[in-house]
From TrEMBL, chains A, B:
GO terms of molecular function: oxidoreductase activity
Keywords: Oxidoreductase
The protein, known as: Short chain dehydrogenase
Family to which this protein belongs: Belongs to the short-chain dehydrogenases/reductases (SDR) family.
Keyword Membrane: no
Segments traversing the membrane: none
Length: 199, 199
């Protein structure tokens, strides 16, 4: 399959790349690295990415920033970080990507454990994940040409625990290699509208 | 209690108003009617509303538009309708309202059944509801001064069934009077981080 992997150099993206690149033709896209450059906060940039890549069998999206910190410090402006990238960025990858997706292709987006098992400081991230999760479930009912759509919700990553463990007391870290398997399940499996939780 | 009711003239808002106005001092806010005018898509307008109303014991938010229709017609621009009002509008009512909320006050936001029980055409609404739902759950852990936050998720409203029943086959309509009770539960009860489903 021809797979477009957006965010291929992040912790999750690179684990996904290692797992799927021996099995599929993978095109990578990222803000500063990759076969194609894309700024997912810009609809023009997303469209330019698809124009350059052409028709694909699957799109996997792993990027998305968000403000992490006390609610009292979460201003509407800081909340825009997650809205523009993790939320709108990922949803626009789908809305603008449908015309470039081959029949029975698939979209796999990324959410995270904060939507299910919230922590202090994680309201903005949770908001974006909750949005993507509910969008996927509803959009799966309405996709043309048998196109599937799922999302992977990773727990606290083993690789990121030094940076984030203070926010996630008692959360068991999961290795990127385990999380990557969920993307493979979405890519090569037959389900749609699913949340693949790796907690 | 001094309660600020935003969206008081809508189907839900007016049912909430009838139920709570005999019990509390209710200030109403809306785009074109009410004690105060507010455009919830503008942070300046939300702040001006709070400046005009002053300290409150509770805020209830019932407004929020969204595009309802086939996914193929859901452009990024049409998706902005829900993002700007139902999603960001409601969340900014909280983020900008915290300084105006008295100790142990409460915010009650509005979501909807499409996030749990999706239908064709409802991806944009579901997205906004999922965002607000996950935000409420996470933000409740981090609210200052014992402030509570909940949301009410109404099913298909009896009063709106003529307009929407084609999108909701087999959904049992619920009367606005039942939905309004859930807002009263959030307002006068003690729970936080809850989803009050009225399906």
């Amino acid at each position: 399959m021809k797979v477009l992997l957006i965010g291929a150099t992040g912790t999750i993206g690179s684990a996904v790349y290692r797992l799927i690149s021996p099995r599929h033709e993978v095109m990578t896209a990222g803000r500063s690295e990759g076969d194609v450059r894309v700024d997912i906060t810009s609809t023009d940039s997303i469209t330019a990415m698809y124009e350059s890549v052409g028709k694909v069998d699957a799109v996997i999206s792993t990027p998305g920033a968000s403000f992490f910190g006390p609610l009292a410090e979460l201003t509407p402006e800081r909340n825009e970080i997650a809205i523009e990238s993790k939320l709108k960025g990922q949803i626009n990858i789908v809305l603008l990507g449908i015309p470039y997706m081959r029949e029975r292709g698939s979209f796999t987006l990324t959410t995270g454990i904060t939507m299910d098992d919230p922590v202090k400081g994680g309201a903005s991230a949770a908001m974006a994940c909750g949005a993507v999760s509910a969008f996927v479930k509803a959009a799966s009912l309405d996709m043309p040409d048998g196109i599937r759509i799922n999302h992977v919700s990773p727990g606290l990553l083993e690789e990121s625990k030094d940076k984030y463990s203070a926010f996630f007391p008692g959360f068991e870290p999961v290795p990127g290699t385990r999380v990557a398997q969920a993307y493979l399940k979405s890519l090569e499996g037959a389900q749609t509208g699913q949340t693949y939780r790796v907690y």
